[in-house]
Amino acid sequence: MLNHLQDTVALHNGVRMPGFGLGVFKVQEGEELVEAVKAAIKHGYRSIDTAAIYGNEQGVGRGIREALRENGLRREDLFVTSKVWNADQGYDSAIAAYEASLNKLGLDYLDLYLVHWPVKDKFNETWRALETLYKEGRVKAIGVSNFQIHHLEELMQSASVKPMVNQVELHPRLTQKELLRFAQAQGIRLEAWSPLMQGELLDNGTLKAIGAKYGKTVAQVILRWDIQNGIVTIPKSTKEHRIVENAAIYDFELTAEDMTAIDALNEDRRVGPDPDNFDF
Fold first, then answer.
1. pTM of the model
2. Could you tell me which Pfam families the record lists for this protein (predicted)?
């Protein structure tokens, strides 16, 4: 069990990944982004998740550099993730995309690089590029994002390295239990994006009642549910007080009854695109 914001989980290659991090989806380049990254690191976050398509890797890199300097940390104290976008899928273009992300971030390596979406007829070649980067020691761990079980099965038929992480939409309305069981059986770590369902769950009566028992917010209840399920989670926020609040989940524990009640909210409902039916 994770007992502290900086506690880590082991990926199947032995690399350790923080169980909790900051996501920056839809946060535009600029001072707000830089300050959010700096605030997260100042308050103990050690994992930052971005992607080429977010268009904010430069700001994330600047926030990281300033935070390292101001907090007396080293690059290896952080865990930085980015993702290869769909337009760059394929072997050569994925290698080039990795270089471009490093350049924008101003980093020498990434801790985790993901295939952002399972683009039909392309993701296997893209994966081969990530395997090359990994085998050359240029990235610490590789994985996928938005892959369903059948995508993973197809990938693993030709892969020489099994994905270490699968980052997917996951929240109490989309609990992904079957995918979680499959991933755990395969030694693939599941990571939740949009864990708070983009705010849609914050007025939920069940979650409010559970939170009231512990003096915790709905967001804190959901994020605690994630870590008790062994799921890495990366809530997004740009406000310092919310960044601090989101991480204040290590001083209480949900009961088995609480966990079951949260699981029962599942409707297999997405706020993001369907990995089996997207056109971008």
1. 0.97
2. Aldo_ket_red
